[in-house]
Design brief:
Elements lengths: L13 H8 L6 H16 L4 E6 L2 H4 L4 H9 L5 E3 L2 H12 L3 E2 L6 H6 L2 E4 L2 E4 L4 H15 L3 E3 L1 H12 L5 H7 L4 E2 L7 H9 L2 E3 L1 H13 L3 E7 L2 H11 L6 E8 L13 H6 L3 E11 L2 H16 L1
Parallel strand pairs: 1-2, 1-9, 2-7, 6-8, 9-10, 10-11
Antiparallel strand pairs: 3-5, 4-5
Helix pairs in contact: 1-2, 1-14, 2-14, 4-9, 5-7, 7-10, 8-9
């Protein structure tokens, strides 16, 4: 294949642009085009277990709307994420965040009781207290002594939120299990622990994952960012087969510190978390740039 110029014309679709980027050579543009091709194939494979992992910081941004759209359309069968993603979905459903600046005076923000997450400003009254009230109401509904897997508790929160702008709501609607292995690493999990009226059964979460993985003929993962959500998806993918058959990573992390967050798909092959026969691509770019383009192109193709 020869290098071809990208020729932009008025009315060019996102899908057409990505197809041209696939022939342009160069750097991450071509990788983004490959990610599009892989995801398009995955979405057309009804026998493939489709999984997504993402980190909580992204839900604090408007990228939450992209996750909502994918889950509303039943693109994924299983979600892996962090407690922060739960916190921010609750807080942004019940209150509002503001666009700020990376260059803010953090001491001044602290005096005004404003949290900063990158260039997102979060009033203290829009976060901790909001999550606390939601958990208190949930505990009141469930009663003392209930023992539930984490994913069922999250379905109940999605049902309570009742908003089409919430990604947890769509997981509840479509019964998509949400796996949060670090549920106590955030406001939601802390408030559950503090009240000590609901017993969370991680064992039931793991039992469900075991059943799903061993019964899936093929597996695919869209892995956005790193951390515990990335690792939990990869860890469980090694069971019931030879690992992921398709993997798309979107991350800005570097691999040279040996962390899981920066590890490339080829490294996961050595752990049998991605099949040696599988297809994979690493797109080193900001997810708030790449994911909207990818999803828009896929919507054009799949409807």
């Amino acid at each position: 294949m020869y290098v071809e110029d990208v020729r932009l014309v008025k009315g060019c679709s996102a899908a057409e642009l990505l197809r041209m980027m696939g022939r342009m050579g160069g750097f991450m543009g071509a990788h983004l085009a490959e990610a599009y091709q892989l995801l398009r194939d995955v979405l057309s494979d009804r026998e493939c277990l489709r999984m997504i992992s993402f980190t909580g910081n992204l839900v604090a941004t408007g990228l939450r709307g992209v996750f909502v759209e994918m889950l509303r359309r039943k693109w994924f069968d299983l979600v892996f994420t962090t407690c922060g993603a739960v916190d921010h979905d609750i807080a942004r459903t019940r209150s509002r965040y503001r666009v700020g600046s990376f260059d803010a005076d953090d001491w001044e923000l602290a005096e005004k009781n404003v949290h900063r997450l990158g260039n997102v400003y979060i009033d203290q009254s829009s976060y901790g207290l909001v999550v606390e009230r939601e958990v208190a109401d949930l505990v009141g509904e469930l009663g003392h002594g209930a023992e539930l897997p984490v994913y069922e508790v999250l379905w109940k929160i999605g049902e309570r939120l009742g908003s089409e702008n919430s990604w947890l709501y769509w997981c509840y609607r479509h019964r998509v299990p949400v796996m949060v292995p670090g549920i106590f690493d955030g406001a939601f999990g802390y408030q559950l622990w503090l009240r000590k009226k609901i017993r969370l059964s991680y064992e039931k979460d793991q039992n469900l994952l075991n059943e799903i993985m061993w019964s899936s003929r093929r597996k695919a993962g869209l892995i956005i960012g790193g951390g515990i959500s990335k690792h939990h998806l990869l860890w469980w993918s090694q069971f019931g087969g030879e690992g992921l058959d398709t993997a798309v990573y979107i991350s800005t992390a570097d691999e040279y510190d040996g962390s899981l967050s920066g590890a490339r798909p080829r490294e996961a092959v050595t752990w049998h978390k991605i099949s040696s026969k599988g297809r994979h691509v690493f797109v080193k770019t900001d997810a708030t740039v790449a994911l909207p383009i990818l999803v828009l192109a896929l919507l054009e193709e799949t409807g």
